[in-house]
Amino acid sequence: MLGLEQFDIPHDKGSSHGVNRIFRLAYYEHPSYVPLMRRARDLWIELETTVDEKLVYVTGSIDAGPPDSEVFAGSRESCLIHALDHEVLDSDQLTRRFPGYRLPEDMMALFQPEGGFVLSERAIEAQVRVAVANGAEVETRQPVRRWRPTPNGAVQVDTATGSYEAGKLIITAGAWAGALVSGLESLAIPERQVLGWFQPIHAELFTLDRFPVFNLAAPEGRYYGFPVFGVPGFKIGRYHHLEEATTPDTIDRDLHDRDEAILRLAITRYFPDADGPTMAMRTCMFTNTPDEHFLIDTLPDQPQVVFAAGFSGHGFKFASAVGEILADMAQERHTDTDISMFSLSRFM
Ligand SMILES: Cc1cc2nc3c(=O)[nH]c(=O)nc-3n(C[C@H](O)[C@H](O)[C@H](O)COP(=O)(O)OP(=O)(O)OC[C@H]3O[C@@H](n4cnc5c(N)ncnc54)[C@H](O)[C@@H]3O)c2cc1C
Question: For the whole model, what pTM was predicted?
């Protein structure tokens, strides 16, 4: 097996940098993500054991918003369908339990104790380390320029410096998917995002044991955040930050006052004890599909090529399980996981 990466492992030009990513069992986007999340979590824990390094932190998760919001109502539905432990808290109960949260009284919160975060860059590094230890070759700074099917049913892949022939090809190019899989230019669209870390005024309220990761449907947008970890700050972002569709070549990687203002707005209103100095900010990319569900499929007329793309800002938590699915699809031409929701044909 050969893995080709155009930059380094890890790097900060795609979608997976910035220390950590939330994982949530109470999946408001659709209940059918819950079994996939369970499998992904098992595989993250297996990876932790294999490399003897802590990669998963369980803090519990909060999904909050007005009672009829997708975030609150959808997470509750997933908990009920999949019999997940959870508690419903009003805003007073939430603040008493987790005092970093100060939500308005018309909001409700769902606490699910198994949520938390994965260390994304450490997990990528660990996955590559295990792959190499098991015989894989991994080459970095090797941009794939093009690939084409060969007459014998294999594929030829051309990079900046060489050419390879393989029986199977798996394409997971993130924001670059449209450049490698024709048809994805209009189905997997990159979007500029910004992450910020802010030094809490009361740091004791934003520790791992006192501040669960969150998703919050607020009038100002859908925010997500983390306790202090890695960078000395409370970490927060807004889904579809400033709604800036972009490309990997043209994305504005500079950070502006307006980027900080949109994050600080939520901190001031909902997490006032975190409203201290800015510690760090980063740009990153979502790659959005029209319905914000993933694309995982075999190319219609090329059964030797499988791809995964369009993770729409919520894919990292599943990366371990998606890797397993892709490997099965490439090797066995079959996966036991129901991935019909992620088919390319839903857009055809
Ligand atoms: C700010 C932000 C916050 C997020 N928060 C969460 C969260 O809390 N929880 C969650 O689950 N998800 C979250 N996500 C989404 C998640 O991080 C992404 O869905 C996931 O990282 C996408 O992984 P990917 O492998 O598709 O893309 P990437 O990680 O970008 O990987 C694609 C790789 O392909 C390489 N590549 C591309 N083209 C070529 C080529 N031609 N040749 C060689 N290599 C190539 C790229 O260099 C890159 O390394 C967030 C995303 C962002 C941006």
Answer: 0.98
65 CA distance to ligand 1 centroid (A)?
27
Candidates 158, 147, 175; CA nearest to 11 is: 175
Residue ranges in the chain whose pLDDT is less than 50: none
Choosing from 33, 43, 316, 322 the residue with most ligand 1 atoms within 8 A of its CB, the one to mutate for a pocket test is 316
109, 72 Cβ separation under 8 angstroms:
yes
Structure tokens that stand for 294 in this block: 């993933």
Q: Which atom of ligand 1 is nearest to the CA of 195?
A: 1
310 lines ligand 1 (CB under 6 A): no
Average pLDDT over the chain, rounded to an integer: 98
Alpha-carbon distance of 287 to 289, in angstroms, equals 7
User: What's at 306, amino acid-wise?
Assistant: V
Closest residue by Cα to residue 70 from 239, 287, 290: 239
Q: Which of 339, 326, 301 is nearest to 148 (CA)?
A: 301
pLDDT reported for residue 87: 98
Angle at 90 between CA 85 and CA 92, to 5 degrees: 125
In this structure, the strands spanning 169-171 and 189-198 are: unpaired
Q: Quote the CA–CA distance of 60 and 50 in Å, as a whole number.
A: 24
Query: Best mutation site among 5, 8, 15, 192 for ligand 1, i.e. most ligand atoms within 8 A of its Cβ?
Result: 15
Q: Which pLDDT belongs to residue 76?
A: 98
